[in-house]
Amino acid sequence: MTTNLEVLATALYVKIDDSLADTGRRGRPPRLSDAELLTLAVMQALLGFVSESRWLRFARARLGAEFPYLPEQSGYNKRLRAANALITRFIRTLARDTDLWHDDVWIVDSTPVECARSRPTVKRSDLAGWAGYGYCPSHSRFFWGLRLHLLCTPGGLPIAWALATPKTDEREVLADMLTGDQDLLSTHPGQTIVGDKGYVSKHLDAFLAGLGLTLLRPSYRNLRPRPGEHLLKPIRQLIESVNDTLKGQLDLERHGARTPAGVLARVGQRLLALTSAIRHNRQTGTPIPRSLIAYDH
């Protein structure tokens, strides 16, 4: 484990512990605090441990001084699933603690989160009814699972996210993400959102304009290109690189969850790890905010 990861984990723990200090939690405190739980979850994602059992064995061998108590795999998994609201809260808290939070441009896109492959697994999965079959054009393949809809800055900082069945229209999810977060809209008036052709809609344009937002996206081939449309492609490619970071370095597609709460926790865990790394990189002056190289070994 690198010194950089130790510094990141220490700073993250202090930030979360200080934020939770004023919550006044009642009852006997758990042996593994919420700050320790989220710090462990971030370290697990950054170090690439897909298996929780392997991660806890590693932590007992290498991190005994930092974490005097570590639960068994079932207890860790239960605590992590119960911490979904806490994970979502601190993704936003850490994002607010960076200068990238004030960027006036956001990028939106969705990417598959596969949850099963075999037909028997699909039939007995607890995700049936939420997950479904979809098609991924960029990889020319069908999949069974969900789609992660991500709104982020050009630097890769997650702003808002949602998981939805692949049949749900991307435009509907974007509208729901924005209208369901009034605090986000009130703190970012006049924001510009860049999307791909999946967000082409006059109704969506009018809806966002009513919220004081501007949507930039390419036109269909049979329509006249908008002014400056050729400049959008490099910007849209930025979120593809963010998705690649989530899948290639943070193993998003190997989440292994089999329940709705489990999927939310595993996806949130990876977004929290990405946000933590970006925050730390900005504070330490790392040239590439989204780089995880200093933390993944």
What's the end-to-end separation, in Å? 6 Å
Question: Which blocks of ≥5 consecutive residues have pLDDT under 50?
Answer: none
Strand content: 5-15%
Integer average pLDDT: 91
CATH superfamily of the domain at 102-252: Ribonuclease H-like superfamily/Ribonuclease H
Question: By helix and strand content, what is the structural category?
Answer: alpha/beta
Question: Class of the domain at 102-252 in CATH?
Answer: Alpha Beta
- The tally of helices reads 11
Compressed to H and E, one letter per element, the order equals HHHHHEHEEEHHEHEHH
Shape: globular
Task: Bin the helical content.
Answer: 40-55%
Tally of strands? 6
Describe the structure.
The protein has 297 residues and is α/β, with parallel strands linked by helices. It has a domain of 151 residues: 2-Layer Sandwich (Nucleotidyltransferase, domain 5), CATH 3.30.420.10. The chain has 11 helices and 6 strands. Strands 1, 2, 3, 4, 5 and 6 form a 6-stranded mixed beta sheet that branches. A hairpin with a 5-residue loop joins strand 3 and strand 4. The N and C termini lie close together (6 Å).
